[in-house]
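Customer escalation, tier 2.

The customer says the design service returned an amino acid string that "doesn't look like it belongs to this structure." They asked us to rerun it and document both sides in this ticket. The original structure tokens are below, unchanged.
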């Protein structure tokens, strides 16, 4: 019985006590676990701190730029107001716009010979000045004394209906003033008297005039008397353009033909028959009138069209219905040429040509800050090109490129600027967009 109680007593006792080595082992294991936990925590904190540092300092993605070169504007071709009657016109000084035009630039009608009327007096003046040259436009030259035969010319041309001016027997005049009388009021008796004075006879003058015409290549021009009263004094538009260039190059003729009037001692003031002087840039040269349907004008003009120098014009109208109709034709033609040179607006102030956007939501426009125009002729095509550079500061107003337009010889350029500022993203955007950073 005692033995049985002993066994039961042993049954209810707890497990045997751990030994000292076992307790030491468990202590080391706990410390290792704590150490590992601490290490993992430190590593986690370090990783988190490194990410934050990286995210806040990593390079940002490039903003996206989109742009479009504006389409060049266009304009309609100029409609030249061409005369209805026979005409021709040459230009110089605008070759970069109009191309090289060594001959006739525009014409109407045929190049047939027609009576040139008092335009003949330009030939008379040039031939006389070749025989009796003046030192310059202001040189009076020798004195001409008029005889009874010269005086009688007044009556001879009066009965023919020609333009005349008094020429008293024994009166005198300088060569320059006498030539002025034949060119400005178109006095036929002066053209006849001066040409005879220079060459001794009408026959000698005509012989010299025909040689002069041949020497200057005016093979389609015919002269039978010095005034133009005869319809057999003929020429073509092409020849008269060449004659106009010769007259414009002569200082005396050009100066006199461009005077609105002349004051002659003892005779008074005489007005120029060319009423277009000073209108639409007209500077000379000579009218020619043989009645209705035979009105002529050989003219020069200087057209200011906005380029470096005015355009030099030599033109002719032949066979006009009336003097007024010829004048209207010339005015309309010159005005249409001048208006054909025009400023074209190629950019408006503030015109957008693109924009810049960022992944973090900032945006700026690319704009042309101020308007731009370019001078062009008629419908000359306009070319446009744009060059952009990467912004440096992304600040409002920064120049980020340029745009250039070209039309014929002219170019004009304008800056392209930022409108708006591209800023930096905030920290939260950086921390929440790791996939966009460092690229």
């Amino acid at each position: 019985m005692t033995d049985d109680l002993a066994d039961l007593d042993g049954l209810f006792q707890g497990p045997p006590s751990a030994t000292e080595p076992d307790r030491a082992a468990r202590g080391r294991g706990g410390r290792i676990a704590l150490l590992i936990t601490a290490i993992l925590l430190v590593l986690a904190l370090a990783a988190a701190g490194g990410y934050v540092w990286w995210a806040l300092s990593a390079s940002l993605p490039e903003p996206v730029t989109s742009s479009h070169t504006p389409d060049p504007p266009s304009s309609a071709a100029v409609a030249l107001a061409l005369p209805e009657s026979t005409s021709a016109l040459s230009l110089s000084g605008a070759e970069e716009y109009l191309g090289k035009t060594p001959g006739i630039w525009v014409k109407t009608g045929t190049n047939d010979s027609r009576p040139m009327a008092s335009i003949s007096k330009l030939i008379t003046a040039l031939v006389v000045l070749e025989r009796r040259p003046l030192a310059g436009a202001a040189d009076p030259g020798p004195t001409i004394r008029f005889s009874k035969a010269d005086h009688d010319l007044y009556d001879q041309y009066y009965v023919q209906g020609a333009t005349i001016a008094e020429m008293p027997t024994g009166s005198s005049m300088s060569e320059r003033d006498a030539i002025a009388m034949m060119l400005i009021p178109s006095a036929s008796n002066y053209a006849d008297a001066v040409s005879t004075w220079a060459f001794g006879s009408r026959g000698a003058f005509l012989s010299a005039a025909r040689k002069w015409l041949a020497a200057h290549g005016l093979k389609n021009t015919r002269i039978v008397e010095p005034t133009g009263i005869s319809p057999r004094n003929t020429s073509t538009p092409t020849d008269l353009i060449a004659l106009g260039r010769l007259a414009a190059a002569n200082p005396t003729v050009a100066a006199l033909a461009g005077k609105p009037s002349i004051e002659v001692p003892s005779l008074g003031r005489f007005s120029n028959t060319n009423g277009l002087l000073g209108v639409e840039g007209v500077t000379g040269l000579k009218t020619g009138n043989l009645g209705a349907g035979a009105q002529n004008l050989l003219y020069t003009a200087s057209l200011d069209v906005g380029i470096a120098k005015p355009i030099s014009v030599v033109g002719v109208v032949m066979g006009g219905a009336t003097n007024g109709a010829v004048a209207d034709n010339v005015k309309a033609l010159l005005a249409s040429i001048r208006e054909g040179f025009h400023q074209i607006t190629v950019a408006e102030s503030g015109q957008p040509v693109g924009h810049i956007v960022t992944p973090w939501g900032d945006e700026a426009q690319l704009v042309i800050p101020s308007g731009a125009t370019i001078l062009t002729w008629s419908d000359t095509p306009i070319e446009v090109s744009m060059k952009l550079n990467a912004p440096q500061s992304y600040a409002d107003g920064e120049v980020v490129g340029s745009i250039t337009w070209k039309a014929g010889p002219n170019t004009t350029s304008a800056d392209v600027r930022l409108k708006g500022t591209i800023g930096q993203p905030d920290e939260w955007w950086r921390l929440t967009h790791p996939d966009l950073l460092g690229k």
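Tier 2 assessment: The sequence is consistent with the input. Residues 1-12 have pLDDT under 50 and may be disordered. The radius of gyration is 48 Å. Sent an explanation to the customer and offered a walkthrough call.
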